[in-house]
Input
Amino acid sequence: MTKAFEGIRVVDFTQVLSGPYATAHMAMLGADVVKVEAPEGDQWRTMLATDEWLAREMSPGFLAVGSGKRSIALDLKSEAGVEITRRLIAGADVVVQNFRPGVIERLGFGWEAVREIKPDIVYCAISGFGQTGPLAASPAYDGAIQAASGMMSLTGTPESGPIRTGFMTVDTATGLTAALAIATALFRRERTGEGQYLDVAMNDTAISIMSPVIANHLMTGAMPELLGNTSPARQGTSNTWATRDGHMTISVVTDRLAPRLLKGLGREDLIDDPRYATEPSRIEHAASIHRDIAETLLTGDTDVWVGRLRAEGVPTAPVNDLPRALADPQLDGRGALMRPPPPTGIDAEIHVPGTGWIADVGSPAPEGPSPRLGEHGAEILAELGYGNAEIDELRARGVIRIGGLA
Amino acid sequence: MARAFENVRIIDFAQVLAGPWAATQLALLGADVIKIEQPGNGDMMRRLTTEGEWAERDLAPAFLGANPNKRAITLDLKHPRAGEVLARLVADADVVLENFRPGVMKRLGFDYEWARGLCEDIIYCSVSGYGQEGPMAHLPAYDGAIQAASGIMSVTGDPSSGPVRVGFMVVDITTAMTAGFAIASALYRRQATGEGQRLDVAMTDAALQIMNPIVSRYLVDGDVPTLIGNRSQTGQGTADTWATRDGHLSIAMITDRMTPALCRALGRDEWAGEARYASTEARVAHSAEIRVEIGELLAGESTAHWLARLAEEGVPAAPVADLPAALAEEQLAHRGVIMDVPTPEAAAGTLPIPGLGFIADADGPRADRRAPLLGEHTDEVLGEIGYDADDIAALRADGAI
Output
């Protein structure tokens, strides 16, 4: 079945996470993503990796965003490297880059320059704070944006102080923003014939994904507090509690579900208690409600409570660690876990996270393995019209690195 | 010039956040989103976390933030005439979006097969907690439940706090972003193939996906992540968040090249020569003591002082801002991230609403009007699909709208 982006070529200059994550989504939907790497490769290839994967320049994080991409490793600062890149762009639909603002302009592939090569190009620039403005040059890594955007000020308890979300949420959400922006621009190109310049910022994305909290703050002046595990709805029936053997979360925020929660907890004695009856009273009496539930839950095991509450239709979940979360049979057959073929020359079964959705036809799925550094250099050069002798010469001069695999 | 989704019509049955925000992204890019709500109460987000003047109008700030540019009609989905109204709406639509519990739309008679019967190339997107099928499909799912079940809470917080919930609805919103991308992709695919598509978006899947690097580390290497507090995933003692005299400061120094710069900025040149700071492995092995000694120094001066010193030396650092400080940054005004949305109600005539994470040279995301009142556009939309005033009055008298 046809996937959405079959026949679309993406020239991908991005490194590490936000950019490669965006183009991974394009690749899983059939786009031909040509990853242009420096001869030393995307640094993500060697970050957070054990020695074994580090030696292969194939970190788990890289494997999770590399499926189906092709890699050409070339020296962008050489004249021949510039010419190869020009030819690549001439046949491309999308260019994506996440250099620090200003860097790619110096290399000769800013939007204006690229548009001269390919007038209807969709050009996506990803950065920390945007391409222009007073903070454009500020350092931007996931932790800095979590701090600067106000995100950390929302997570944690008064005792813990501000806490970082324990994974690179700004990087991945920014990748999703870029993927949407690119898909949107391609759709617009179909209708108008025009390309588009997309300026994606991690900080803007952070603000955007906090929308409900920020909208509330801006319109009412309410200052969000460190909520710990209470829900933003601030009702005492929505929180995380310790059980006899772990932790579990309950989210009850409606009048309809409150009595069902009490029934599931075996606390029929509280069903007529007015503290539980309405949203305002569940907020006003949050502390005492929290204590009622805490005392009850400590008397049993997580799985038992979760089963009982689910039988009553109460939204609840165990606080899982990753092994348990990933062992869930619910994930079978969904797109959340994928098994791309192993990279060339590596004998291993690869499991990586996929996407948040599946489709009846044309569903996102790996089109191939993650590329070794420079693995497709010769193949891509041949497609661009370079002959074998020229390719050998470019390799000998150090313009391209084939990675010893060709 | 035209925004991408002008003339694309989305019939939006979604409530609360994960569904509505999916359609909102496309609405900001020009789509005509018709929000269908139950007469009487409407979307429960209208009243969630509401205080003050907006409560009376059923326009909670979070609802206003999540539904700009949409038109709203009320329709009792269980009313005998609901099917006839929806048939006319869907026949002209490009996308149907819903986030009921799996099975509900089928029971109501409005599932994908029904929609495809009315509109051959419809894109039908369902958003749910665990997916449309499977052993957990029937379970109710809120942001908090999925933060717990997906492992997000197991990596957020420190050993003393225990698992901590991310303090905003991170799963709802990133699920919506996933759905927005899925819909945009399906619309693009339809241009090429002429075919519609059924999309099944799950909050759990989206949660695992946004934890991409740590999930892949576990799957590939068996490395189980733990409560990491404010340390970096790299485990290096030179990347963390520390208290200063008047606030908190995040520093991420993880390369040998930058070590001397950090030590200079801290006024401890001599550390640069010590083995503990010399390599990635050493900064990981001595993480605990490095964090303590940096913390002792940072506590002695203000955040502004340290930020200036670190910036002079080129060390990546950022202040831990609260929302007022973060939103006061000139950079945000420069970017237009907070959109001033016209509204008839507000005294100043506009409301501040956070937009999307990108801008474009032309036809970027833009809010033209505030989120709708419950049923605000019922007459207008029904008029467009061929109901005259008498028909509309009859539907109203009958309790359908």
